[in-house]
């Protein structure tokens, strides 16, 4: 390690009476990438926020320890700096990129105003010069048409472009340290590969140290020089990345490695039945642009373009593709949460397209949906008993006197204790909440569950538990799943067949062996090339083989 630019010594952080970080120490060198890994609640983000002294804004406080930043040959303890001095450090000497750029960017300010603010505040530039520097910054992070982007708003950019804007802002003042807190978790594999390669190339150019926080061990293997593993606020292991993956010492690290899905391990599913549960035929969905006084309505965007697919009883069809390819729109169109423009959808022989509202509502008990964010899916004011039995009550499948017994049965089926039914959503972890969302879907005995990115926001061990649960339910009850995800290794693990979606079309469908081991379409090949391997000896995302290319459908 080239001399440390950042040193954390015996850091302790508390939220009220709860100690979230317990004596954590580590060093970060110039041009080094240190990965901070662990499950939710391990203290990763609390440690990162403490370095920049943002933890106070989250209700926490640093109770002891030191955060030493190299400064003109000496060391400055950030813990004891006043707020005005800290303002000069944040974004200037230490910058941070957060997981969700949409919540980090101001939705009512143009991109140019937000990026130029960094130059105005830390470099004292004029508005004109700052906008010119902002344009150059967007160009450096490979944003196409940077001049045009300056006048756009965040909602007009894709997730990958918004994350590039956040990186441009973070690197504007050429910081000594970049803290990247789960910056690629919500991104598809090709965009993730581009962001990781971008951070690495800019790191080499600037010479900064990178503290990379993630629960994705594949990403760790691709980019890290050293790894610090946290559990319940304590450091349980620290090692060079090659040693950690080859010879993990702590039992907790070993469990993390075991839970990490690896592309090529194969599917763990059993043989499916012959009965067709879901049939989608030539389905198209268009988002029309609204007309105004000065502009006629145009044809709009064809988000789903002539898609056909089937799912059999007891089968899981995995659906993969980049953000914006139409996966979620297809899922919502199947349920007619979004009205398709044309095509047919049948569930167990019943035609859903064209049904009047009352009949459609009754038919939806056969198809239930589990969404990505279990926090947003559960009403915080309702008890678990009320939440998970709500679909059954809506469809008149349960009497009032039977609700408690049904709730107890449902939580038991998803591996939770019976007393869970009297508690509220905030009293459960993210993984437990996703189990509750599955329990709610099961309350009406559906034939098909559409899981839309249902495990992408979860830690690897929790995601493994949820997919194990889905496989158990499938084997026991003959459930069918349409499993939508950008994590291809997880899709492989749970799927009988895989469909690849690109620009609104299904470009390849087949058994998981055929699609993943013998991909025929160029886009499928590109997706597979972008999947990070949890093996440092097989690093491949940081080369130039994954440059953006337009692929013919």
From TrEMBL:
It is an enzyme of class 7 (translocase). It is found in: Cell inner membrane. It is a peripheral membrane protein. Its main location: membrane. Its EC number is 7.4.2.10. It catalyses: glutathione(out) + ATP + H2O = glutathione(in) + ADP + phosphate + H(+). Residues 6-257, 288-528 form the ABC transporter domain. It holds the Pfam family ABC_tran. InterPro entries: AAA+_ATPase, ABC_transp_ATP-bind, ABC_transporter-like_ATP-bd, ABC_transporter-like_CS, Oligopep_ABC_C, P-loop_NTPase. Keywords: ATP-binding, Cell inner membrane, Cell membrane, Hydrolase, Membrane, Nucleotide-binding, Repeat, Translocase, Transport. GO terms for molecular function: ATP binding. Belongs to the ABC transporter superfamily. Glutathione importer (TC 3.A.1.5.11) family. PANTHER family: GLUTATHIONE IMPORT ATP-BINDING PROTEIN GSIA, TRANSPORT ATP-BINDING PROTEIN. The complex is composed of two ATP-binding proteins (GsiA), two transmembrane proteins (GsiC and GsiD) and a solute-binding protein (GsiB). Part of the ABC transporter complex GsiABCD involved in glutathione import. Responsible for energy coupling to the transport system. This is Glutathione import ATP-binding protein GsiA.
């Amino acid at each position: 390690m080239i001399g440390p630019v950042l040193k954390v010594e015996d850091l302790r952080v508390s939220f009220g009476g709860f100690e979230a970080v317990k004596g954590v120490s580590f060093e970060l060198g110039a041009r080094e990438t240190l990965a901070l890994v662990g499950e939710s609640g391990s203290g990763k983000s609390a440690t990162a926020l403490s370095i920049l002294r943002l933890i106070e804004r989250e209700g926490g406080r640093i109770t002891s320890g030191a955060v030493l930043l190299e400064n003109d040959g000496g060391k400055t303890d950030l813990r004891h700096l006043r707020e005005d001095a800290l303002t000069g450090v944040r974004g200037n000497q230490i910058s941070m990129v957060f997981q969700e750029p949409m919540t980090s960017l101001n939705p009512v300010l143009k991109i140019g105003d937000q990026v130029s603010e960094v130059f105005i505040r830390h470099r004292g530039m004029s508005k004109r010069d700052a906008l010119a520097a902002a344009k150059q910054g967007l160009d450096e992070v490979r944003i196409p048409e940077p001049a045009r982007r300056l006048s756009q708003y965040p909602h007009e950019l894709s997730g990958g472009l918004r994350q590039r804007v956040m990186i441009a802002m973070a690197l504007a003042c050429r910081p000594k340290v970049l803290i990247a807190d789960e910056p690629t978790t919500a991104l598809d594999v090709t965009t993730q590969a581009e962001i990781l390669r971008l951070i690495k190339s800019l790191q080499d150019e600037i010479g900064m140290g990178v503290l990379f926080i993630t629960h994705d061990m594949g990403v760790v293997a691709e980019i890290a020089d050293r790894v610090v593993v946290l559990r319940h606020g304590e450091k349980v292991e620290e090692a060079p990345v090659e040693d950690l993956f080859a010879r993990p010492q702590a039992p907790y690290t070993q469990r993390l490695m075991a839970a990490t899905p690896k592309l090529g391990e194969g599917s763990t599913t059993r043989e499916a039945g012959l009965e067709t549960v879901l049939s989608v035929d030539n389905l198209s969905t268009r988002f029309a642009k609204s007309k105004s006084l000065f502009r006629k309505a145009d044809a709009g965007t064809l988000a789903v373009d002539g898609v056909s697919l089937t799912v059999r009883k007891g089968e899981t069809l995995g659906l993969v593709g980049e953000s914006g390819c139409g996966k979620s729109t297809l899922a919502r169109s199947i349920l007619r949460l979004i009205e398709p423009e044309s095509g047919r959808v049948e569930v167990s022989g019943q035609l859903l397209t064209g049904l009047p509202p009352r009949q459609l509502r009754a038919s939806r008990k056969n198809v239930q949906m589990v969404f990505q964010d279990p926090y947003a899916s559960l009403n915080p004011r309702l008890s678990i008993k009320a939440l998970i039995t709500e679909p059954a009550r809506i469809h008149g499948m349960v009497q009032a006197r039977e609700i408690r017994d049904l709730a107890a049965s449902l939580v038991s089926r998803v591996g939770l204790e019976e007393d869970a039914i009297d508690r509220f959503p905030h009293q459960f972890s993210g993984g437990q909440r996703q189990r509750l969302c599955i329990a709610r879907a099961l309350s009406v005995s559906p034939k098909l569950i559409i899981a839309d990115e249902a495990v992408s926001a979860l830690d690897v061990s929790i995601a493994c538990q949820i997919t194990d649960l889905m496989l158990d339910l499938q084997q026991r009850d003959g459930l069918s799943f349409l499993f939508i995800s950008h994590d291809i290794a997880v899709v492989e693990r749970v799927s009988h067949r895989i469909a690849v979606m690109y620009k609104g079309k299904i470009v390849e469908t087949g058994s998981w062996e055929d699609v993943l081991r013998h991909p025929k379409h160029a886009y499928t090949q590109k997706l597979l090339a972008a999947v990070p391997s949890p093996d440092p000896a097989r690093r491949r995302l940081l080369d130039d083989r994954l440059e953006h290319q337009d692929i013919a459908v």
